[in-house]
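Action item from last meeting closed. Structure (147 res):
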């Protein structure tokens, strides 16, 4: 009976982990060839994330070689996580949309008030004492009503 154990450990952990993530009694001898490629997949519930696999060990006979941590490559430090860029772009786009909305709202408000001011008729002081003059809108409607 063959057994597959999957373990994971942080880079700072010097010893092989005692606790396995997944352990199955399975015979992979008919699947595993002498020479083949191995792939890894990684998933989280975050929108964007990165995972670095710096080393792994594998053995068919049950004796896994210990990893020498001094020979492992270093984790890239200059890379900013992608989610930080995503958050930055999200904040900038929301701010720009809000700014555009405010500009459009104030422009429409200003133009509406300006149009009202230009089209409104001003009543002069003497008109308060005497009969009022007819507005232009009323004068343009009179010929249509008479015909």
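Sequence:
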């Amino acid at each position: 009976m063959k057994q597959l154990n999957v373990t994971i450990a942080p880079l700072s952990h010097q010893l092989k982990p005692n606790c396995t993530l997944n352990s199955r009694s399975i015979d992979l001898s008919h699947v595993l060839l002498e020479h083949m490629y191995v792939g890894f997949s990684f998933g989280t519930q975050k929108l964007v994330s990165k995972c670095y696999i710096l080393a792994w060990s594998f053995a068919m006979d049950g004796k896994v070689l210990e990893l020498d941590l001094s020979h492992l490559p270093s984790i890239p430090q200059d890379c900013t996580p992608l989610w930080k860029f995503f958050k930055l772009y999200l904040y900038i786009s929301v701010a720009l949309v809000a700014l555009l909305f405010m500009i459009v709202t104030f422009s429409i408000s200003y133009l509406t008030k300006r149009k009202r001011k230009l089209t409104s008729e001003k009543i002069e002081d003497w008109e308060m004492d005497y009969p009022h003059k007819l507005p232009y809108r009323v004068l343009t409607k009179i010929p249509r009503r008479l015909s």
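Note appended to the action item: The chain has two domains: 1-77, 82-146.
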